[in-house]
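pasting for ref
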Amino acid sequence: MSTITDLRFALTAGSPDPQASNMGMGVPVEPAPLIQQPVNLVRSSRTPSDPSNTRWTNGFSYLPNAIGDLEVADDCGPDTVNVPVNEDYGTVSWHPYVLSASFKCSAFGWDQNDYAARAKALLDAATPKMVEFELWNGLLSQAASYGNLFLSYTGGTADLYTASSIQEAVGICEQYISQMNYGGRGMIHLPPVLSPYLQLVTRREGNLLLTNRDTIVVPGAGYGKYPTTPGAKPPQPAGPFVVVGTSITDVRLGDIITFPDDPSQSLDRKTNTVEVKASRYACASWDGVTFCHVDLTMTL
């Protein structure tokens, strides 16, 4: 015979310890650590090893290795056949930018708030999202006339397609990447809202999301439609969704520095607050040889 026990639970307010200090705020404890999304643009990209005397932070350019003419020829005759690749030859240029995060708090509790460490930790954790946001939207590039390519761009350098399923969109990108460059590896970028559907076309290996051709897929936190007002509720996801195929991206990141060195130098005596800012140079780029934009219309 089995007995069923009726278990009931309740939450009750505990009596505060009369010996405890700071009862109004609670006992100070360490906040939860910031953890990056494992699959992100920074981890999925190459990290170039520029010479130590290269000031890439002032801007950089290069002639892509992936451009040129490919042909199959008869070794005993004049017959040749061209293998199609992107023939838009030219140097690509990129203008880096500065990422920053700041921590502002009351000057009270000075011994409990490591202002510089907090600002650095926030910037380090948010770097992938910030780089993805600029690469997708190009808002700073447009405002400052940098001329950097960005993923949501639909101008002359991007080839446009449409799709009605995630499989079709990824397939279009795979075919495009294969035909437009030398046959090497590429990347597919898309907003996180499509993540639940990627199990149909991807697999996970460590911190990389890969197709069956080992094309790297990045559902970046900074990708997609963001509200125009900071802090506003994100809009309801609705199509068409953008899926972008590119060559492999490079991400250059500078060291994180904080300002001021002494937090007391930023004390605002009117509000009795201290603010410390952490900054670093950054730039996400690709060679521009491969760039397709797929408008995906599907019901979520």
